[in-house]
Amino acid sequence: MPRAYTQGEIEPDSDFTTEDFCLQDKTQRIPIIVEGSDSYIEKLVEDPVFKFKYKYDTYFIWIDVEQPFLNRRVDMRVDEMVNAGLVDEVRQIVIPDAKYTKRI
């Protein structure tokens, strides 16, 4: 989920949907979106209900990172998670005889 900051009113780690963002009172504020999937950004900018692109001048900045660098970062993060107890945490929620081949 992208992080949305509006003068300290939204906690950085809170779930904050495009709908939440567009319903905020943005008087005298410049919205800044950090992170987010293409579909999130597209919905935010293109959805006629939100009219985001009609309310604001829109600028996009992409940081292009090469795949090997991303792979190393993901590998390091997974190692950190495993070292912090990820395997034991998953063992606590797995039901031994459950069928995990079907979606919920």
TrEMBL record:
Keyword field: ATP-binding, Cytokinin biosynthesis, Nucleotide-binding, Transferase
Domain of life: Eukaryota
Keyword ATP-binding: yes
Gene3D superfamilies with a match to the protein in the record: Crystal structure of tRNA isopentenylpyrophosphate transferase (bh2366) domain, P-loop containing nucleotide triphosphate hydrolases
GO molecular function, one term: tRNA dimethylallyltransferase activity
UniProt cross-references to InterPro entries, sorted A to Z: Dimethylallyltransferase, P-loop_NTPase
UniProt entry tagged with the keyword ATP-binding: yes
GO cellular component, as recorded: mitochondrion
Coiled-coil annotated residue ranges, if any: none
Biological process per Gene Ontology, one example term: cytokinin biosynthetic process
Family stated for the protein in its record: Belongs to the IPP transferase family.
The protein's name: Uncharacterized protein
Species of the source: Solanum commersonii (Commerson's wild potato)
